[in-house]
Inverse folding.
């Protein structure tokens, strides 16, 4: 009986883990300008830019940097590799919340919630203050060829 | 009037500065990731458990303020010629990730990388009060390196400990 309870508990925990980790992978925003790799760090989820359609700044010919960051001291950080999704926690029902999204085009950080519509589609909603005042973008999963 | 303004500024400064005992303390965080590392951004991470007894305090809440003095990362030899840029961030259970420092090839001294601390850093003591801190290093490489990374990050700090009654 005890073994059965233990097995049931282990299965439930494993299922919860699988559900929360479904977001891990490579994703492309609707603009197609970049690709973002979502990974897990210390039980939270973070997204890093790993590919840029136009990696170089047309004005300088050099790799694009985070030149709009409000913190002057980190404006030289390359955009490729930048963590733009931060601190997401799995809240159940295919939703990751309490995180932020950073827009390198204007240096602003917004509150953000991510919903997984299906295994290959994310709805990313960035907002200020109240969820009603925001914008939703649809991201598609990029399958990595093995 | 001038003296009243000066006195007010003095009082405000005194009231806002952390009151307590200052002590220097170094934390060591092992950072690791399995290779191969690709050209471009790669992530290393490591966690450390903060024990009050190691800081000479009874409970972590007694840690009132933490000021970063320097961040020094040992770089494995295989990676030394290939480092282009690196960023260090910190995260804990109840606190959001924040960038601590950046570095590029010019910050390498021998096999050590001496990071440049970011200007705008929020309060760090709450991260350490959580008991476990995770440090993430995003390292951009010029070329692929087929090796594992295991090295220590030394975090040199000045801790302000609450005065005991």
């Amino acid at each position: 009986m005890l073994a059965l309870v233990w097995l049931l508990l282990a299965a439930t925990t494993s299922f919860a883990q699988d559900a929360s980790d479904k977001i891990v992978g490579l994703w492309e925003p609707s603009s197609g300008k970049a690709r973002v790799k979502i990974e897990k760090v210390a039980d939270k989820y973070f997204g890093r830019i790993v590919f840029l359609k136009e990696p170089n700044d047309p004005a300088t010919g050099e790799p694009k940097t985070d030149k709009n960051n409000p913190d002057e001291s980190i404006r030289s950080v390359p955009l490729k590799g930048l963590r733009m999704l931060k601190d997401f926690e799995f809240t159940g029902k295919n939703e990751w919340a309490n995180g932020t999204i950073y827009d390198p085009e204007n240096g602003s950080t917004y509150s953000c919630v991510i919903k997984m519509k299906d295994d290959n589609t994310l709805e990313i909603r960035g907002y200020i203050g109240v969820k009603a005042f925001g914008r939703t973008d649809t991201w598609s999963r990029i399958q990595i060829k093995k | 009037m001038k003296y009243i303004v000066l006195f007010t500024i003095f009082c405000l400064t005194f009231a806002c500065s952390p009151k307590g005992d200052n002590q220097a303390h170094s934390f060591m965080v092992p950072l690791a990731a399995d290779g191969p590392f690709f050209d471009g951004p790669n992530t290393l991470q490591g966690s450390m458990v903060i024990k009050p007894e190691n800081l000479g305090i009874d409970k972590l809440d007694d840690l009132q303020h933490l000021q970063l003095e320097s961040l020094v990362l040992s770089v494995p030899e295989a990676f030394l010629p290939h480092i282009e840029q690196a960023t260090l961030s910190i995260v804990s259970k109840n606190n959001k990730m924040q960038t601590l420092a950046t570095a590029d090839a010019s910050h390498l001294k021998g096999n050590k990388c001496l990071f440049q601390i970011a200007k705008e850093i929020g309060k760090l003591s709450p991260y350490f009060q959580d008991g476990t801190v995770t440090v993430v290093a995003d390292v951009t490489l010029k070329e692929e390196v087929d090796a594992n990374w295991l090295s220590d990050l030394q975090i040199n700090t000045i801790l302000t400990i609450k005065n005991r009654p």
